[in-house]
Amino acid sequence: MSMVAALDRAEAHDGLPELLPTALREVGLPSCDRGSIAAEETALRIVAAAALTGEVTPRDLTTWVHQRHGHFLKLAEELARLDDAYEYTEFTAQTREEIDADVLAEARRIIGSGPGGCTG
User: Fold this and answer.
1) What CA–CA distance (Å, rounded) separates 93 from 99?
2) So where are the chain's domains?
3) What is the pLDDT of residues 26-46, one digit of tens each?
4) How far is it, in rounded angstroms, from Cα 12 to Cα 24?
């Protein structure tokens, strides 16, 4: 942790990704390999939690998922599908409010699915 604290702003961009996993383990927090499925699922859980607290809208959550993962992250697949549903509300009986409710239900499911595969 002291090595992370010693990084200046210029060094942080290159040095932090290498030092962060060790620093997190030192303080008992989980660490994921950058770019791994576990890391992506952890990020998804964080943004899903933000949707449940109102920090981001349900639509922002689905847009973020769709832009970042398309339909390729299994845990986020339903959110990507719901992002598509927002685009077609004028052609279906489903309202934006109903989709919002479905997104929040899916966010709860994602958060409840477990902490992911990060090591602690």
Assistant:
1) 11
2) 1-31, 32-120
3) 777 677 777 888 888 888 998
4) 15
